[in-house]
Give the backbone structure.
Amino acid sequence: MAGGAPDIRDYFAEMYVAALLGDAGCNVYFPRRDNGFDMIVSFNADNKPVIRPIQVKGHYPTAEKTNKVTYGYRGRLSLVHPDMVLALVFFDVDQGTPAPHHVAWMPFEKVVKTVKGYRCEPASFKDGKAVPRRDHRSYFDKVGLDRLLSDNF
């Protein structure tokens, strides 16, 4: 890629999430320095202002990735908040796909603290794609975004 750009479009996931939130009517604010949250969003739900910090994690599987029963994020989060959203952006193995296959909008209550950091695995991985797990489908894509924009996320 030109200018020494990485092979993986890591910043694309953040911009994609910001665009979806903007299209949904949110005000999207980016921090001057990334010390935890990738963005903060504000919107009105039931005539009340709501502010949610957003942490974005993109998943760019390679052709070597095997099928997994659980798939999502395992690792450290430098900053957490009870009202935060962990936006998991799932791309397909097919790198030619220009946009993610799914976005999971996970509330912090669905993120589990572990000895090594945090875990949130709302999908499985099958045949080169993330597949929403049954108990987490309501957090994916448009349904999940609508849920995020409600006052009782």
In short: The chain has a mean pLDDT of 91. Strands lie at 27-29, 39-45, 48-59, 68-75, 85-90, 102-107, 112-114, 117-126, 129-132. The chain has one domain: 2-148.
